[in-house]
Each structure stands twice: as C-alpha cells, then as structure tokens.
Design goal:
heterodimer, B: 111 residues, mainly beta, 11 strands, 0% helix
C-alpha cells in the first residue's frame, strides 16, 4: 500500500513551459485535492475532485488545469509556467465523510525561472 | 482572506518547556484537524476534533475545540526535540470536500 505518490520530486521550468505533475493513490479514496505551499501562507487549495469525472476550483485555480478520469489518478497541469508558480505542490486524498481528513503525498518542489 | 489564523507563526523553545498554539476563526467549522509536517515531507494528520468543547490527548499533546466550534488549541507538555516541525490546523465546513488551512506554526525545540 503506497498511499499517495507524486512525481516528479523536483522540477525546474522556464517561463512559458508547460508540464504535468502526477498524483496517484491506491486507497480507493473518492476525494482528491491539489495544494500549493508557500512560506507563511499554509496550504492553499488549487483544485479538487469529489470523484472520477468531477472537478472543481479551489482558492487559487488560475494557471492550472486538472482532470479525473480514474479514481486513482489526479494530474495537475501547468499551462504556461510563470515565476509566481514557484512553490511546493502537494496532492492529497480523502475517503470523504464529513471531515475530509487528508492523506498527503511527499510533494513536488517546482521552480520557474 | 485567511479564514483560519494561527498564532504564533514561529516558536522557539527549550526542551522541557510547555507551549500552546492557537487556531482562531470567525467562522463555524463542522470539524477541525491538526497536522504536523516535517521538512521535505507532506503533512500528517494528528487529530480531528468534532464536538464543541471536545478535548483529545495524544501522549504529551492536548487538543481542544472551542465551545462555539470557531477555534482550537494545541498544547504540548514538556516539549522534546522530536516535536520540531510545522503544525497546521485545518477546518471543514460541510462544503463538499474542501478543507481550509491556517498558515501554520513553525516550532523549534532546542536541546
């Protein structure tokens, strides 16, 4: 049982490049989320999904796209990277219920130059 | 707008001291969670409090949910160097799968 896995661990992009951050979970959780973490700002929700085929925007969705074709996978796409997207990105999954307790992946550290 | 305010943001103490971290909001939450994050890793859930006034203990850590379910506190007794890390509170608002996180409290416990 690997839990939540994320790839890559580190990535450097040039402004304007696009890329996909991968996230997968093997706990059969319905809920999955993407957060970004910046110093002094905690975790901010980018996009989330309550099940396959269903996604919604979080607090900071601009510049990011998601899709959820399977229960296991929830990739995050950066369409045209900007220096403001330099951050640490965490994927999380949850079985739902009423508390949405999150299981986090190890994170992807992204630098945009 | 930060719906959950944590204080203090930074805390540096000596081993053996006690400390309290606060998580405050003007909003009511259906539940509140505390996570701990170590450098280079993702946050890990410590506890969930659900009922107003609820107190939960996890070894030397005591968590309390306010009576009005708008605030919470984390108290650590006799801190150890292994308690060093970033502590995050997060609230659920019955809005279909979303958590709202505070900005975190960075704790450093020195030997």
């Amino acid at each position: 049982n690997a839990g939540v896995t994320q790839t890559p661990k580190f990535q450097v992009l040039k402004t304007g490049q696009s890329m996909t951050l991968q996230c997968a979970q093997d706990m059969n959780h319905e809920y999955m989320s993407w957060y970004r973490q910046d110093p002094g700002m905690g975790l901010r929700l980018i996009h989330y999904s309550v099940g396959a085929g269903i996604t919604d925007q979080g607090e900071v969705p601009n510049g990011y796209n998601v899709s959820r074709s399977t229960t296991e996978d929830f990739p995050l796409r950066l369409l045209s990277a900007a220096p403001s997207q330099t951050s640490v990105y965490f994927c999380a999954s949850s079985f739902g219920g009423i508390n949405y307790e999150q299981y986090f992946g190890p994170g992807t550290r992204l630098t945009v130059t | 707008t930060q719906l959950l305010e944590q204080s203090p943001q930074f805390l540096s103490i000596q081993e053996g001291e006690n400390l309290t971290v606060y998580c405050n909001s003007s909003s009511v939450f259906s539940s509140l969670q505390w996570y701990r994050q170590e450098p280079g890793e993702g946050p890990v859930l410590l506890v969930t409090v659900v009922t107003g006034g609820e107190v939960k203990k996890l070894k030397r850590l005591t968590f309390q949910f306010g009576d009005a379910r708008k605030d919470s506190s984390l108290h650590i007794t006799a801190a150890q160097t292994g308690d060093t890390g970033l502590y995050l509170c997060a609230g659920a608002k019955n809005q279909g799968g979303k958590l709202i996180f505070g900005q975190g409290t960075e704790l450093s416990v020195k030997p």
